[in-house]
Structures are given as structure tokens and as C-alpha cells.
Design goal:
Number of strands: 10
Low-confidence stretches: 11-25
CATH class: Alpha Beta
Distance between the termini: 47 Å
Number of helices: 11
CATH architecture: Alpha-Beta Barrel
Structural class: alpha/beta
Protein name: Ribulose bisphosphate carboxylase large chain
Order of helices and strands: EEEHHHEHEHEHEEEHEHHHH
Pfam families: RuBisCO_large
Helix content: 25-40%
Oligomer: single chain
Keywords: Calvin cycle, Carbon dioxide fixation, Lyase, Monooxygenase, Oxidoreductase, Photorespiration, Plastid
Shape: globular
Largest sheet: 4 strands, mixed
Radius of gyration: 20 Å
Family: Belongs to the RuBisCO large chain family. Type I subfamily.
InterPro entries: RuBisCO, RuBisCO_lsu_C, RuBisCO_lsu_C_sf, RuBisCO_lsu_N_sf
Length: 269
């Protein structure tokens, strides 16, 4: 039987080093063995035949772009009772990864978030919360880029610079849009644009509602900052090196952005 393959790492109380990278069947309660100090599931390769038994995201990135064709408002609803109604009526579903860190934040025990991300792509959500790298939630840049590609792309080659994971073929299963959310504001826009690119959702909660003039000016400030960064990127400017200057230039023509820059200038994570 063509079962998923695993990459597992083991380590002591303070370190973690890879010791196994080969195909094995998923075991039972190995994580509870007394003989093990720690054990971490880094990845699993899902066979194409198994992937084809799932519908995955019903829309996919391109279809969603064609339907919306603009910046749209969104909100998170914790009630599970209306999920079926939403799906039946064609609404986009956001999968929030709250509580994931209970399972995956330990570097030498548990499992990596990419394992959860693969399961969530199969489950059929349209958006998956992916952290921000630059906001209030933990997440290393290269590792985050690794599972962001895993959510969006159809074929992912293993890349040790972005973590310990297998090559994965999604055999045309629709992609999921990563959602960057958690402590982000206008000064983060250059980094977010560079890290997540075009096929992403940038979700500003407090970064919008915290604007001193209200919600609408907060939304305007974020939109102006985003468009300035996208234009600068398309012109070939280095967002990492010139990000702050790009935001300052744009704020000269947008009082809403200028006010937001003043509010958030001291916020660091």
C-alpha cells in the first residue's frame, strides 16, 4: 500500500538533529515511547493517488482572484454551525491556525506546522493563516516561505535552506492563499510585499482599527502603503533596503498614511 512517507528528527532536551530521512509507514504511538527523550515529525509526503481522493479548496487561487478582482473585507467567525451553509453558498473559508503552537512550536518534539498545512490544504479551506515573519507571531523567514510555497504551488522541490521536507506533487489540487495576520501595520508593508508576493491576504486588524481617525482612514492608509510598495517592487526597487523610504514618500501624498506612520512608528516585535 502506498502510504505517506515521513521525515522525523530526534534530539535531547535542548538540541535537535536529523537522524532519519527515508520512507517509513506512519507509526502508532511512537511519540509516547519511554526510550525517546524527544521526537519531531518534520514532514510527510502524500502520495498522488491519495491526494486525488480529496477535493481540496473548491475555488483555488486563480478562480478566487477572478471572482473578487479587488481588495475585499473579511472577518473570522468561530462558529462551526454555519460552515456548511457558507460552503453551500460559495463563501470563502478562512482556516485559522490558532493553538497550532501547542503542537508545533517546540523545535525538538511534536510536529512541524508544514505537516498541519498539508492536511489543511487537503481539507478544503480557501485561506490558511500562515503567520507574518515580521509581526507579533513567531516564524522564521525561510521556514515560513517553505510552507507558504507548499500552500500555493502545485509542485514543491525539497530545499534544505527552507527546512527539512520532501518534494511534494499536489497533482493539480487547487492552491490555498496564505494569510499574513498578527500585529502588522503600515511599516511592515514593504517586508510583507517582499515575503508573500501577490497571491496572499494581508489581514490588518489592529493595524486598521487602531488608526487615530477611525476605521476607514485606517483602511486607506494600508491600501496606499500596499500600492506604494507594489509599485516600487515593479519598478525594481529593493523593498528590504528602501522600505521605510518608500512608505515615507507615499505618506507625503496621503494624510491617512502619515497619521498611521506616526501612530505605529514605535511598535516593534
Amino acid at each position: 500500500m502506498d502510504l505517506p512517507a515521513l521525515i522525523v528528527t530526534k534530539g535531547d532536551a535542548t538540541t535537535s538533529s536529523p537522524f532519519l530521512e527515508k520512507e517509513i509507514n506512519i507509526s502508532e504511538n511512537v511519540f509516547g515511547f519511554k526510550a525517546l527523550r524527544a521526537l519531531r515529525l518534520e514532514d510527510l509526503r502524500i502520495p498522488p493517488a491519495y491526494i486525488k481522493t480529496f477535493q481540496g479548496p473548491p475555488h483555488g487561487i486563480q478562480v478566487e482572484r477572478d471572482k473578487t478582482s479587488m481588495v475585499v473585507p473579511c472577518w473570522d467567525e468561530d462558529s462551526l454551525q454555519i460552515l456548511a451553509w457558507r460552503r453551500d453558498n460559495g463563501l470563502l473559508l478562512h482556516i485559522h491556525r490558532a493553538m497550532h503552537a501547542v503542537i508545533d512550536r517546540q523545535k525538538n518534539h511534536g510536529m512541524h506546522f508544514r505537516v498541519l498545512a498539508k492536511a489543511l490544504r487537503l481539507s478544503g479551506g480557501d485561506h490558511i493563516h500562515s503567520g507574518t515573519v515580521v509581526g507579533k507571531l513567531e516564524g522564521e523567514r525561510d521556514i515560513t516561505l517553505g510552507f507558504v510555497d507548499l500552500l500555493r504551488d502545485d509542485f514543491i522541490e525539497k530545499d534544505r535552506s527552507r527546512g527539512i521536507y520532501f518534494t511534494q506533487d499536489w497533482v493539480s489540487l487547487p492552491g490555498v492563499i496564505p494569510v499574513a495576520s498578527g500585529g502588522i501595520h503600515v511599516w511592515h508593508m514593504p517586508a510583507l510585499t517582499e515575503i508573500f508576493g501577490d497571491d496572499s491576504v494581508l489581514q490588518f486588524g489592529g493595524g486598521t482599527l487602531g488608526h487615530p481617525w477611525g476605521n476607514a482612514p485606517g483602511a486607506v492608509a494600508n491600501r496606499v502603503a500596499l500600492e506604494a510598495c507594489v509599485q516600487a517592487r515593479n519598478e525594481g526597487r529593493d523593498l528590504a533596503a528602501e522600505g521605510n523610504a518608500i512608505i515615507r514618500e507615499a505618506s507625503k501624498w496621503s494624510p491617512e498614511l502619515a497619521a498611521a506612520c506616526e501612530v505605529w512608528k514605535e511598535i516593534r516585535f
